[in-house]
């Protein structure tokens, strides 16, 4: 397979692309940016929260060890990606609907449970289980438990884990400028999937079905 450079805006939902050596999956377009997630997790697992964290809202993604790990990965190892990031709010509503943690701005971060459910059909499975940014509940909830956050097993199933457990890896998600050039694998004489119209793709699907049709 050959690689071809094209604008991120031309990459289709669910299609993979590479930027600064990192493979991503495009999830959706949002005005002048595109939301994408790493095709796989980072190599090392980490805790959601530090053992010695002094704050009480331990499953609040904002300010967590997980958020610092993801941002450090981006800033220190991939400045080219960092320069293309568009800062956007992340909805930290907990699973029981508590909104204590608000919608802070984020650079690179984890997926929320709502984002995971919305895009699951195009999310590839990962080599390691990984954290989400969504907490179970907050300390102000009647059934308060600020030590649980959601995560995804390697088989795609949802789980809630203790924030001090280092069994889950970060999987960076971020908004990128739609105008940047990214690399995609090409098909058929150097053409990328994004180069084909919807009609071309439908015609090709019908052609393949007809070629394998056996009336007997």
Number of DSSP strand runs: 13
- On the 0 to 100 scale, the average pLDDT is 90
Q: Cα distance, first to last residue?
A: 37 Å
Please indicate the percent range of residues in DSSP E strands (runs of 2 or more): 25-35%
Biggest sheet, in brief? 5 strands, antiparallel
Q: What oligomeric state do the depicted chains represent?
A: single chain
Rg, alpha carbons: 19 Å
Low-confidence stretches: none
Number of structurally distinct domains? 1
| Gross geometry | elongated
Main structural class? alpha+beta
The helix content is 10-25%
Biggest sheet strand line-up: 2-3-4-11-7
The helix/strand series, from N terminus to C terminus, equals EEEEHHEEEHEEEEEEH
The helix count comes to 4
Describe this entry's structure for a reader:
- The chain has 216 residues and is an alpha+beta fold.
- 18% of the residues lie in helices and 28% in strands.
- The chain has one domain.
- The chain is built from 4 helices and 13 strands.
- Strands 2-3-4-11-7 form a 5-stranded antiparallel β-sheet.
- The longest helix has 14 residues, at 198-211.
- The protein is elongated, with a radius of gyration of 19 Å.
- The relative contact order is 0.24.
Task: Chart the SSEs and their pairings.
Blueprint: E1 3-7, E2 16-19, E3 22-30, E4 33-38, H1 65-77, H2 79-82, E5 88-89, E6 105-106, E7 108-109, H3 113-119, E8 130-135, E9 148-152, E10 158-162, E11 173-177, E12 181-187, E13 191-192, H4 198-211
Antiparallel strand pairs: 1-12, 2-3, 3-4, 4-11, 5-6, 7-11, 8-9, 9-10, 12-13
């Amino acid at each position: 397979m050959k690689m071809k450079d094209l604008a991120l805006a031309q990459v289709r939902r669910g299609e993979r692309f590479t930027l600064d050596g990192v493979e991503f999956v495009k999830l959706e377009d949002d005005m002048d940016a595109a939301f994408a997630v790493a095709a796989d997790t980072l190599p090392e697992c980490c805790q959601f929260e530090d053992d010695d964290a002094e704050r009480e809202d331990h499953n609040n993604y904002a300010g967590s060890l997980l958020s610092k790990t993801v941002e450090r990965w981006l800033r220190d190892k991939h400045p080219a990606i960092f320069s293309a990031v568009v800062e956007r709010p992340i909805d930290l509503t907990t699973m029981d609907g508590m909104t204590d943690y608000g919608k802070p701005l984020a650079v690179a971060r984890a997926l929320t449970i709502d984002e995971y459910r919305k895009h699951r059909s195009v999310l590839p499975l990962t080599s390691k289980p990984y954290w989400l940014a969504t907490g179970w509940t907050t300390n102000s909830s009647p059934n308060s438990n600020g030590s649980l956050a959601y995560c995804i097993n390697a088989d795609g199933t949802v789980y809630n884990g203790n924030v001090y457990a280092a069994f889950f890896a970060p999987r960076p998600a971020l908004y990128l400028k739609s105008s940047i050039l990214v690399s995609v694998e090409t098909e058929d004489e150097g053409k990328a999937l994004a180069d084909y119209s919807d009609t071309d793709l439908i015609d090709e699907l019908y052609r393949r079905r007809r070629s394998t049709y056996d009336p007997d």
